[in-house]
Amino acid sequence: MLIALSLLTPLALVLALGLAGLLRPLTKFTIRRRLTLFAPLAVVPAVLLALLGNPGSATAALEVPWMLFGAHFAVDLYARPLLLIAALLYGAALLAISWIKLRDAERGSSALSAFLLLSFTGNIGTYLAADAASFYLGFALMSFSAAGLVIHYRTPAARRATRVYLVMSVLSETAILAALILVASGGGFLLTDAPAAAGTAHTGLIQGLLFFGFGVKAGTVPLHVWLPLAHPAAPPAASAVLSGAMVKAGLIGWLRFLPEGETAGAVLLTLALIGAFAAVLVGVVQHDPKVILAYSTISQMGFITALVAVGLLVPELRGATSAAAVIYAVHHGLAKGALFLGVPVVKHYARGRTGILVLLGMLGAGLAVAGAPLTSGAFGKYVSKEAVSGIEVLGVGLDQLLPLVATGSTLLLLRFAAVISSADRDPRRRADGELLSWLGVCAAGIVVPWVIGARWITDPVQDEGVAVPSWDPGTLWDATWPILLGIILAAMVWVAARRGLLPGRLTSQEAPVVQPGDLLLAEESLLRRVGSGGGAALDAAHGFTGSAAGRWSDRWSAAAQRGRRGVSWAEARLGGWESTGLVLVVLLTGVVLATMLLLGGNS
Amino acid sequence: MNAPMSLTLFCLGAVVLIPLLASALSVLLGSAARRVLGVLTSAAVLGLSAPILVRVTSGETLELALGGFESPLGITLRADGLSALFLAMTAIVGAVVSCYAAARPAATGKRLVAQTVEPATVTDGDHRAALTEDAPAAWRTGHAGFWPLWLGCWSGLNAVFVSGDLFNTYVGLELVGLTAVALVALGGREAWAAALRYLFIAVLGSLLFLIGVALIYSVTGTLDIIDSGEAITQLAAQGDADLAAVVLALCLISLGLALKVALVPLHGWLIPAHSSAPSAVSPLLSALVIKAALFVLLRAWLWVAGPLPELEILAWVLAGMGTAAILLGSVMALRQSRLKPLIAYSTVAQVGYWFLLLPLLLDPETSALEGQPGTTLEEGAVLAGALSGTVALALGHGLAKASLFLSAGHLKDLYSTDEITELRGAGRAHPMLVMSMGLSAVGLIGLPLSLGFSGKWLLATSAVAAGHYWILVVLVAGTLFSAAYLLKAVAPLLVMSEDDQTALTLPQAQNHPGASDRTLTGKAQLAPFLLGLLTVLTGFLGVWLTGVLEVGAPW
Amino acid sequence: MMLASSTGALGALVEAGLLGVELTQVQWYLLLGTAVAVIGMVRMLLTRDLVARLIALNVTGIGSLMIILALAARSAESADPAGSGPGIDPVLSALVITGLVITVAFTGLGAVLIRRIEGFPVTGRRDDPESGGPAQDPEAEQ
Amino acid sequence: MVTWLEQIPGELLPAIPLVMVLLSLTAAVAIFPLPENSVKLRAGINLTAAATKVLLIIALVPAVVADGARPEFSAPFLPGIDLVLRVDPLALFFAGLSSLLWLLTTIYALGYLRGSKNKSRFFGFFSLCVTATVGISFSGNLITFLVFYELLTVVTYPLVAHWGTPASLRAARIYLRYALGGGLAVLIGVVWLSMYVGPVDFAEGGAEGVTELVASNPVPALLIFVLLVGGLGVKAALFPLHGWLPLAMVAPAPVSALLHAVAVVKAGVFGIVRVLHDVFGVEAAAELGVLTPLLVLAAFTILYGSYQALRQQEIKKRLAYSTISQVSYVVLGVAMVNVLATTGGIVHLVHQGIMKVTLFFCAGLFAEVIRAHTVSQLRGAGRRMPLTSAAFTVGAFGMIGLPPTAGFISKWQLGTGALASEHPWVLWVLVGSSLLNAAYFLPVVYALWFADPEDVDPETLASGDAASDAADPLRVREPKSLLVPALITAGLTLFVGIAASLAFAPLQVARFIAEGVLG
After folding, report:
1. Which of residues 238-297 of B touch C (CB under 8 A)?
2. Which of A148, A298, A124, A135 lies closest to A210 in space, CA to CA?
3. Contact B111, B142 (CB under 8 A)
4. pTM of this prediction?
5. Residue D41: other Cβ atoms inside 10 A
6. C18: CB partners within 8 A, 6+ apart
């Protein structure tokens, strides 16, 4: 019942917002304003579901026989934590855009909250779905309502971002549809037995399709190009949700459907690592704080994808790596959400009384993302290192490589801090929804990962809470050396920049050396070339068939014309009086003679 | 003989004689009275033919010796399935056209009237009083002479359909021919030449027919259709030398009738005659007059000659001419720019369908089908199927063509032109008329739910059963062509406005003599619509028609 | 006139026995009748002048009626070979009479039409106001 | 209300098919002579006829689907062959679709044609067309099917030529030429078959006698099949025979909505399904080896239709080509001989009808209210006509096959069916075609919602302004009688999409039919 409630309340609210459009303009505006105020409450049922619905219990399963092909919903080990952070993030985002004074509210905020509610439903739909069709329903609803979020400001950049996002999400949707049909027809309609079914037939094909489909959403290289474009274009609340919750849908898709496979695991691992490190290089040179955060998301998602890849490589470790991935996702969701929500908060509240609070919060979130000790980041990294201990990649232990990602993220965060500190301020006097929601997310960021890690994620192998890092010096040092390395590198770069040693292009203020969405230009031109080439070829083929048909019909009508002329010539001949007579006489004699001969013949 | 029997026999006799009597009577009356008499007679004939049809459908052939004289000298009237059907169709079409002519006297032709002098009383037949030299002659619409001629023609038709012996058929044919020529002549200046040409053809045809009948009489010693049929079958059984004379007679009769029915190489006279005839006359010509010749041909081929194998060559020649008719008629119809010649050519084309069955009659039990497990048409049915198909086609054509010619004539009278391009958009002013042209087009093309479709279906199934696949091809080609030229005739009428929405301007309508006439003209449009509706509704009568044809069938 | 000469020539040929064909009287008349009918038909079908065509029509009519009479005689002859007088089958003779009546009727109608078409030659030329074309151009009747 | 319908006594059932056919016939006969200005009466007759027809269908559903009744009515037509009207689940399926959409389209047409001339003629032929469609769906043997099939051709000609401009007449003429050609091919096939087998009654596993015919002499059987499917293919707009459909878009919107999305095109496909299932039977067709070429042809039509739609700039032309490709889904599904694919094919018959009608309604609305005929003129229409654009978006998502809509259900069924059959490559045809659909529908949706009205060329902007209300300067008043049917069908698309496994939902009925045929 709780599942139904958590899915339906946001939808009901969206419906109400839509129907309000029918009323007279004045009442329409007031009703919509009041509805957006209630919007954040729509997430409450989902939060309750996450808290109360421990997997396997009555509230955690729902079967709707008449929906789609018999819809099943269930809260399971992985879904519960992700559900919680999604609910929290969406709640905070809705809070951020609605509980503020009318004067500060953005133009068309009700449309924004409507799209947020829709993507929230889609998002938790993907987590809760227990059968392929409802999963796809949730996924499609989420990705297409996200387009509404990205386009919100209607700026040219937003338009371009939406176009790119739409094209990529349509491609990913179709790939996922094909994969799901393959899995379902292999017997994996219910998600519990999907990976097994996917393993039976067309495994390679299914893996490829799933990589492509969910890779777009999870921002793995080379499919990540839409992320750096979409985040700056979307309103901050939306981009918080985009990188906090939506990107995780890609992760849950892989966890649900991916069958084992060494080659697939290896490919995914390499892509993940490339993503993790390359994103840092490109992110560092950006000027827009949200773009930097976007690249940080790409690198963090690289980290999580690496975990999933390991799960594929070594099936025994699948349970542990998946659990680690989920915990890390939880941590990253909240921390990244806090950072994104923080961008406007810094802009409005950095001065004056709330300044310290803002500084503390941002610092805390930054450290968590970097994985400093005592933060949820450290916890996440520790659990992941435990899960992947012993895996070798090109001779280097994976558990050595992962901390380097932390250094990368420290570099990015320092760059972010530098850029955000120099950003212009537009102070607001009284605290409003924006600040509150940001604070909420920061608090959740600190508390929730630990709670989830300890109690909710029972390691399927040891069947008890995942090991909580004890603060002995060994683990402390493991957590801190990557950060120190990062700080040292940053200092060196800073000194070089001070001395003017760095090439001018790198530090030029206006256009960053690498446009956001770096590979995009290459991919766009590739796509455009393929499209135009294919189009030209098809048009040529069409032209050819058209002319052939034209020639054939000309021949046909020429023949018909000749036939008609011949007939009318004959008609002219026959029309005359003498000719009828002549014909009659000829016919008469001919027939008579013929019958006489015939009769003569046989009688 | 019990009462009802004598009543239907009375109807049998009356159906021939009453129109003749009315024709004679109408000569004495004024033009208004003639219209009333005309309508009354048509109602009477309709009433008389109903009991005949009922009696025949219940399964017995009616025989009546006029005046009690027995067969060699006396006239015996015989009505079997075939004649009952043709009688009924003629009654329906005749009645509707008569009402139309009564409602719109202007449709009955043009008369030459001296300007000043009151129109001279019309003497019998067509001899006009000599006109005074100086007063310039002017053409007036409406010709009172229409009624006597048409009623005479009607009685001739009925005589042909119910006559029991060949000689009476000849007399009937002549009466029809004579009155038809005169009816064409009512159409004014350009109709006279066509009428004269029609006259020569009619006389030539009937002379050939007469020689044929005489030959048959000399061989069989009897003029009665049934007796001569039996005599000939005996002759064929003995393989008598006289069979040559019979075959020669059949050749002469078939060619004579082909002339009268305007089968392709001999169709020259039909186009000018039917298109220049007045708008009330051309439906009668196309729908009824040529059907008389077809009826006699069917009688000769099936009842008299009985399918003699020796007629093989003649059958194939006629079938060839029929196929040529379908193709040539349709192509020429496609090339016409005026409505009435187009419809006339369509008649020439449709005539071709009625001759396709002849080769089928000669060898119905070809071996082509022995091997098929599921052959549904057993051997005897091929003949029945072919005949009912042809009769259905002929009757369907009668109804549809009458409606089409009425509508075309109506438009020609109103706008004094039947150029298709000038009549563009006539549909807007006369929706009922275009609707009836559409319905008759459905009947002529042979789309389902029309007698034409059932006819084509029956002919096709029996042809395929007898292995004559070429008929299927001809039928399909014919249907496609007829669809093409009928679409060419009807489509322009539907045009509402030019592409750039400018309204269409119709040629200025003829000024009508009186307002009262306007309502009548409006009413008159009901006639073609009724006939069009009938073509479609009779689509359901396929089974009933085959049943009726069984009555008095030769096999 | 041309007609008479051709029948005469044929008769002479037969008398002379040139044809060497022994004809009974009936077959002779049959042959004669067919000849007249064929000549009439050819003449009718090939001339342009209407009146000549009408006359040719009558000649064909007479020819065909002669054939029928010959047939009547033949069947009467076969009925009672040794019959007393020139027996003619009554039915066929009735047929001939009706044929004659009908041909006369048609000729009458034809004459009226020809006179109409050739535009009352007795009362002088009359340009027909309504139809516009010259009334009596010979091609009209094609 | 439904319980009352169930009490219709058993023996009345056989009368229902005849009543259904005669209902719209009498409506037509009543409407034709009506003068132009009697709008109320004409609307009354139309709506009552349509409503009663839908009610009768609802009454029939439990009887036919649940307890397997087969009400039948037959009348003698030709010697040895009767006109038979029989209701079986497939017939009910198609008749239900056409009568429901007839009701909605009538409401739409009443609003759409308010200003135009000769409405009586339009509505007369409109109800005749539905008579033909219901006749086609209820026909019990091949002859009755042929009669109503030809009737449909004749009756739709004046509808296509309704505006009476030379362009619409030319389009109607081409349509007639195609349809008559097709009709003749079917006639020859029917004659030839019935000569071999006698009256061809539709029976579950194929008409009796046909299987022996296929066994004894396959060549004529193959020729007959080609003739029948070729003739029906004309109306089903299969690849080489689809030329008439885009041209017929010149007709008024309700005509292109009902005819080219539901009646005419579906009649062709329905015919093919009948021939495949109830005349030849699937085993005999497989034995003849015709299924794979048919499958290839359908697949090619799907891709060709979508490709052509991509190249069209006019909305209605784009929808026409999308109809061509969507209708071949049904043929695709039926040609793959397994329960899943056949269910997908048959259910797409209804789903595509509902979705395509929504799109045509919206196209008509756009053309009528803001004179937008091409995609570029639609920019920013979302702000000015929000409800129509919402309906259009639902329809477009349905065409692409996105989940909440009915299109997803049929695409999912066809996909799983393709993998279960021995032609797994069909899945890639489906994937390719959904990509192409997205390629030509998403730009329209994007233009509707996200393109700014400002960059709309001024004259369409100006034309919309006149009727806009005060508050939102750009909002345009959408006429109710045109909008309500569009919203109802859009809602229907969503409802059928989500509640696909409801008791008598199209998916269940389609599965019931497929199981009946393939066992």
Report:
1. none
2. A135
3. yes
4. 0.83
5. 13
6. none
Residues in A touching D503 (Cβ below 8 Å)? 66
* Chain B residues with CB-CB distance to D125 below 8 A: none
D416 in contact with chain A, both atoms CB, cutoff 8 A:
yes
DSSP reduced 3-state for D353 = helix
For chain B, give me the number of helices (H) and strands (E)? 22, 4
Nearest Cα to B106, choosing from B543, B401, B538, B518? B518
Give ipTM to 2 decimals.
Answer: 0.79
Q: Tens digit of pLDDT per residue, chain D (519 long)?
A: 445 555 556 667 778 888 888 888 888 888 887 887 788 888 898 899 999 999 988 888 887 877 777 888 888 887 777 888 888 888 888 998 888 998 999 999 888 888 787 788 888 888 889 999 999 999 988 888 998 998 898 889 888 888 878 888 888 888 988 998 898 899 888 888 887 787 788 887 777 788 888 888 888 889 999 999 999 999 998 888 888 888 888 888 888 888 777 788 999 999 999 998 888 888 888 888 888 999 999 999 998 898 888 888 889 899 999 999 999 999 999 988 888 899 999 999 899 999 999 999 999 999 888 888 888 888 888 888 888 999 999 999 999 988 888 999 999 999 999 988 888 889 989 999 999 999 889 889 888 888 776 544 444 444 433 333 344 566 778 888 888 999 999 999 999 988 888 877 888 888 888 888 877
Encoding tokens for residue A350? 């950095």
The count of other CB atoms within 10 Å of the CB of residue B227 is: 17
Give, as one character, the DSSP assignment of residue B512: P
Give A559→chain B minimum CA distance, Å.
13
What is C19-126's CATH number, 1.10.1240.10, 1.25.40.10, 3.40.50.620, 1.10.287.3510? Answer: 1.10.287.3510
Number of domains in chain D: 1
Distance from CA of C61 to the nearest CA of B (A): 7
Do B172 and B159 contact (CB within 8 A), yes or no?
A: yes
Touching, B vs D (3+ Cβ pairs under 8 A) = yes
The tokens describing C39, both together, are 């000549």
**Domain-located, residue B381:** yes
B193 touches chain C (CB under 8 A): yes
CB within 8 Å: D412 and A181: yes
Task: Point out the residue among C112, C123, C133 whose CB comes nearest to the CB of B127.
Answer: C112
Closest residue by Cα to residue D72 from D17, D21, D148: D17
What are the tokens at B447?
């789309």
Enumerate the domain spans of chain A.
Answer: 320-516
User: Cβ of B211 under 8 Å from any chain A Cβ?
Assistant: no
Residues 542-581 of A with CB under 8 A from C: 575-578, 580-581
Enumerate residues 42 to 61 of chain C having a beta carbon within 8 A of any beta carbon in chain A: 42, 44-46
Give the residue on B whose Cα is nearest the Cα of D209. Answer: B374
Contacts of A576 in chain C (CB under 8 A): 142
Helix, strand, coil share of chain B (percent; to 5) = 70, 5, 25
Among C46, C141, C142, the residue with its CB nearest the CB of A581 is: C46
Residue tagged 């630990």 (tokens): A450
B305 torsion bin: left (phi>0), alpha (psi -120 to 50), beta (else) = alpha
Residue D437 lies in a domain: yes
Measured CA to CA, the distance from residue A259 to residue B122 in angstroms comes to 106
The SS3 of residue B338 is strand
Q: Count CB pairs under 8 A between chains A and D.
A: 89
Contact partners for chain D, using 3 or more CB pairs closer than 8 A, are: A, B
- Using left for φ > 0, alpha for ψ between -120 and 50, and beta otherwise, residue D289 falls in left
Total count of domains within chain B: 1
* A181:D416 CB<8 A: yes
Determine the structural domain holding residue D388 and report its residue range. Answer: 350-519
- Does residue B555 belong to any structural domain of this protein? no
